[in-house]
Amino acid sequence: MYMTIQETAAFLSMSEEQVNRYVLEGRIRTVHDGEQYMINTSQFDTHFKQLEQAKHALEEWRATPIPDDVDIKDED
């Protein structure tokens, strides 16, 4: 599915200026139809998968209890 820069900005929760900058830098691939840039959204699938994996790893890390430190001595 192809979207315009405005639609892509809303899809990625970014500003239009940032999406334009990424297009000009080549970080987002586009097709120019003579009037506007069209962006294929399938190129973001890997990004969203990696984002979900990072969120899952962070949640696992947060859920892991802190181990007792063997070097702590009871002063009582």
From TrEMBL:
This is DNA-binding protein. Keywords: DNA-binding. InterPro entries: HTH_17, SinI_DNA-bd. NCBIfam families: excise. The keyword DNA-binding applies. Residues 2-50 form the Helix-turn-helix domain. It comes from Planococcus versutus. One of its GO terms (molecular function) is DNA binding. It comes from the Bacteria. Pfam families: HTH_17 (PF12728). The keyword Chaperone does not apply.
